[in-house]
Amino acid sequence: MRTSEAELVGVLCELLRVPSVPGSETQNRCQDIIRRELHPSARVDDWVPDWPSLRDVTAPDGRQPYVPVDEERGAGYERGIAEVRCIVATVGEGDPHLVLNGHIDVVPATPDGWDGEPFEPREARGRIYARGAMDMKAGVVAALFAFNALCELRLVRRGSVSLAVVPEEESGGNGTVACLQRGHVGDGVVFAEPTDLRVAHRHIGIQSFALNVRGRAGGILKTGPEGGVSAIEVMVRALAALDRAAHARRERAFEAGGYDSDDDPAFINVGLIEGGEWPASRAESCVARGLFGVMPGESVGDAEAELATAVATAERDGATIEVTFGAGGHAGGELDAGHELVTSLASAGVDLGYGLELSRAGAMVCDAKIVDGGGWAPAVVFGPTGRGLHGVNEYVEVESVLRCAEVLAMAAARYSTHFDPVSV
């Protein structure tokens, strides 16, 4: 496979100039670019999902994969994505069916702290700086060029390969859910998220939660029945209990091995707290919302139960704590290093002269949590090298995007020769 660096960089920069944030129809401008660049021989499914109907999708594990983001962002969220499209292009016929998946939405960015405008790509020292360069438009472009090479060189001699380009990953993964609802499942899926060209065959899942504390409004000069019970004070106790639970879960994770010293696969993060009415009154209510990691080997239900048990220790007379969990929780997962997906990528690296490292990459969170975690299909993650994910001066290394495209194309061509439906 020979990929023109100038052509690849040109398409990537064109995508990076689009502020394709979640919840906006702007994402379709990226889809227009993808559609234009697809090889003419590909069969293309380009559609607007019935977004509200995704609430009714049930994963093979029995859980609901849809993340109801409108509950946090307001009722207008679904109206904002009403016309946003998904694109799945396919070459070949039948099984085995490999899917290359990438998302075109990016987290928002302002110029604060950047060396330039975040949505005006800047090239320097073999890198491209822009919002979305690392997460994950470079991976999308690598998968696109790999797919086009498969079409051009007619490398798919058995089975089929699809390129799924989805919106709304950053809001929870509903674009991938739309593809699954449409029937674009596959026998295996490679997510081209950034991994520093490592074959990541482990990922963690994620679940949302909310704590609703009800106290008793009252003055601050009395205790007992005449005084109040502060919901905020009880919330502080609950957060301390969650912190202890997070430390215990983290110790278990590191006992399992395979994590870097700064990984936090068992995170419990509270990102929003609201409560209280007046400084001189004990607060009647307090609400906290957050996310926590679901580790490989544990179910979403078991992780939820552990958090609920920890929070219950913070209860006190005169106050109640209600713990609720999101409907769209996702499990973690891990493939054996000898799985067809893993060995196809590793063998492709050998063939191309690249020594690809296998990585359990336990801190990886992406839509593998939906596909693999939900029981649809095994999944791995493999993508280019970059830094600054969701941060200022985000960048990707151009050479790694070229290598990623070559490996993806070679691995896709080899996948069917490794495929064993019994093991899948």
Description:
With 424 residues, the chain is α+β, with helices and mostly antiparallel strands. It has eleven helices and 18 strands. The strands form five sheets. The chain has a six-stranded mixed β-sheet, with helices on both faces. A hairpin with a 7-residue loop joins strand 17 (386-387) and strand 18 (395-397). Helix 1 crosses helix 5, helix 7 packs across helix 8 and helix 9 (340-351) crosses helix 11 (398-418). The mean pLDDT is 91.
Descriptive tags:
single chain; 424 residues; alpha+beta; six-stranded mixed sheet; four-stranded antiparallel sheet; 11 helices; elongated
Spell out the blueprint of helices and strands.
Layout: H1 5-16, H2 27-37, E1 43-47, H3 70-73, H4 76-80, E2 86-92, E3 97-103, E4 122-124, E5 127-129, H5 133-152, E6 160-166, H6 174-182, E7 188-191, E8 199-200, E9 202-203, E10 205-214, H7 231-256, E11 268-275, E12 285-294, H8 300-312, E13 320-325, E14 333-334, H9 340-351, E15 358-359, H10 368-371, E16 379-381, E17 386-387, E18 395-397, H11 398-418
Parallel strand pairs: 3-6, 3-7, 7-16, 8-15
Antiparallel strand pairs: 1-2, 2-6, 4-5, 5-18, 9-14, 10-12, 10-13, 11-12, 17-18
Helix pairs in contact: 1-5, 5-11, 7-8, 9-11
